[in-house]
Specification:
The protein is an alpha/beta fold and about 375 residues long. The chain contains 19 helices and 13 strands. It has helices at about 15-25, 40, 45-50, 65, 75-80, 105-110, 125-130, 130-135, 140-145, 145-160, 170-180, 220-225, 245-250, 265-275, 285-295, 325-335, 340-345, 355-365, 365-370, and strands spanning about 5, 30-35, 55, 90-95, 115-120, 165, 185, 210, 235-240, 255-260, 275-280, 300, 315-320.
Length: about 375
């Protein structure tokens, strides 16, 4: 069986790239196609397994563009459609939050026998459907409204290509129904149990943790404002364009520290030592709470998005219902009073193992494609 895996772009190693790594375990001989490829940022294991042997990237794949890819968003639909694909494919699997589901669309349209296409959807294209919430600058979204309208029409058209759509959460399945007018089956993405696991010998500290890419919509600013009202230490772990602004916001709070670009081992140690992980934003699914749970750490999450499907109140965490500093600060105080069982918290991560993901993904394929 000839399989092609389609991925948006590989210029970081995050949840989507972990899904790609699992797909490669299901389809070890598959070709991989992406718009951008930066082997230094995706990690040696994935780079060696994919691109040094059989990967293809698009005409946009230049070093400067990889670091400034958002400037080239208007070109990506056309570039994706024109990327070449083999003419004898049996299966396409697009692992996408954006443009991958359109890769090779023109080549496939010319074929008499089209391959079966499975879309694993992390989210409908945010630039197209949620530009005002994704980009903080209203002037920017107003000026470029025609471009966002074009992206919306293109994304809707490309979402009709797949035979089957799998969503990474019920939350995203609802968006797929709303935006694409298609049904989707939820298949939760896997965390990495080799990197994040429960260690009964770990020492719990007195700090709280917030982790992830430092982007405006992730609401780390809300966490900092809440901890101005609290006596607890706070660690913010991650990197991103908001780092400078967040440091400036935290300047007068001596209880706040930053762990910039932690390794997986360092992040596991931060998870294991924290009294709780703060997850303040609406996320499509959110692997970070699952990783914290795997390390035995409770999660305090905003009651929205994928967190509603991973956090179980008073078993592995709590919710707060208003994205205000006051509401979050009170919820932190409430969390600090609960005597959680770290071992029981870690068990709740078993719903998101790689083995379960691979088995459930394979079960969604047509019968004649499962055994090849």
């Amino acid at each position: 069986m000839k399989v092609a895996l389609l991925h948006d772009y590989l210029n970081q190693y995050g949840g989507a790239e972990r899904v790609l790594a699992e797909l490669l375990k299901i389809f070890p001989r598959a070709s991989v196609h992406t718009l951008l490829h930066d082997p230094e940022r995706v990690g040696n294991d994935l780079a060696e397994r994919v691109f040094l042997r059989r990967g293809r990237a698009s005409l946009l794949d230049f070093a400067w563009i990889r670091s400034h890819h958002r400037l080239f968003i208007p070109l990506m639909p056309s570039v994706a459609e024109r990327m070449p694909l083999a003419t004898d494919l049996d299966l396409l699997v697009s692992d996408s939050a954006g443009f991958a589901k359109g890769i090779g669309a023109r080549a496939i349209a010319r074929l008499g026998r089209k391959p079966f296409h499975v879309l694993y959807c992390h989210t409908p294209l945010r630039y197209a459907w949620e530009a005002r919430s994704y980009f903080a600058n209203r002037f920017f979204t107003g000026v470029f409204a025609p471009a966002f309208n074009f992206l919306r029409e293109w994304d809707l058209a490309m979402a009709q290509r797949p035979n089957v759509i799998l969503a990474n959460s019920n939350f995203i399945a609802g968006k797929i129904q709303n935006y694409y007018r298609r049904e989707a089956v939820t298949l939760y993405p896997p965390y990495d149990p080799e990197r994040f696991y429960f260690d009964s010998t770990a020492t719990r500290g007195d700090y709280f943790l917030a982790a992830g890419r430092l982007l405006a919509y992730k609401r780390f600013d809300l966490v900092l404002r809440a901890f101005e009202l609290l006596p607890f230490p706070l660690v913010i772990a991650g990197a991103g364009p908001e780092l400078g602004a967040l440091r400036k916001l935290a300047y007068k709070n001596s209880r706040v520290s930053f762990a910039v670009s932690p390794t997986d081992n360092e992040l596991r140690g931060l998870y294991a030592g924290a009294r709780g992980l703060i997850f303040p934003n609406v996320e499509d699914f959110g692997l970070i709470p699952v990783e914290a749970h795997a390390c035995g750490t409770p999660v305090l999450a905003f009651a929205g998005g994928g967190a509603l499907e991973t956090v179980i109140p008073e078993l592995n965490g709590l919710f707060f219902k208003e994205q205000t500093a006051k509401s979050l600060a009170q919820a932190v105080r409430d969390l600090a009073l609960i005597d959680f069982s770290a071992k029981e918290i870690a068990r709740t991560a078993n719903r998101f193992t790689p083995e379960r993901f691979r088995a459930e993904f394979t079960a969604r394929l047509p019968r004649d494609l499962r055994s090849n």
